[in-house]
Amino acid sequence: MDSLLSSGFAPYSARQVSPTNPRILPYGEAAIAEAAAVIRAGGCVAVPTETVYGLAADATDSQAVAGIYAAKGRPSFNPLIVHVPDLEAAELVAVFDEDARALARRFWPGPLTLVLPVRPEAGISSLVTAGLDTIALRVPDHRAMQALLDASGLPLAAPSANASGSISPTRAEHVAKSLAGRIPLVIDDGATPAGIESTIVQGRIILRPGPLSQADLFPGTAPIRSAAGPRPSPTEAMTSPGQLESHYAPAKPLRLGATERREGEWLIGFGAVAGDDTLSPAGDLTEAAANLFDALHRADASPAGAIAIAPIPQAGIGLAINDRLRRAAHPRT
Question: Which of 110, 140, 210, 302 is 20 to 30 Å from 198 at the Cα level?
Answer without folding.
Answer: 302
